[in-house]
Design goal:
182 residues, 4-stranded antiparallel beta sheet, 3-stranded antiparallel beta sheet, 11 strands, 0% helix
Length: 182
Amino acid sequence: MRVPVAVAVAAFTLAGCGHSGTSMGKMRAGPPPIEATTQLLGPNGELRGTAMLSQRPEGSVVRARVEGLAPGTYAIHLHAVGKCEGPKFTTAGPHFNPTMKMHGRDNPMGPHLGDLPNVVVGLGGIGTVDFTVPMLTLVGGPAPLLDADGAAVVLHAGPDDYKTDPSGASGDRIACGVLPAR
């Protein structure tokens, strides 16, 4: 059973995320895709972006769009708890790490499943990331992201160095979006 996400998908404007899979007027057979969508909100409730996750056979695709930020590089991670209480968003817990790896793709003992590539924000204040996390499941499997307490997508103030455990030296948490439990 699919539980609806509180955020209206119509508000999600990331290019290429809304296609549901019709071809030549025929509907694809099979169950609907497993997806979760959230808004990334700053400490005062200001919209800082959106994120959409889609479970696929090869892993889960994470697509995020951030906006209204100064040009630069920002870390974005999947966190273990579906709670985003500002202003510091520490209620989102640590990075999602059911395999007990170290942080970072450049760390010989990593990466963990909450690691994502940095988001580069250009002069217009907008940045995007589109990345597949192998072995990450939203539901099902031995360690689904959307477990009993949900999960969160967290945007950090600085770039991830891809090696420092536990968070890539990425700085404060500046925006957060809840992915509800299923």
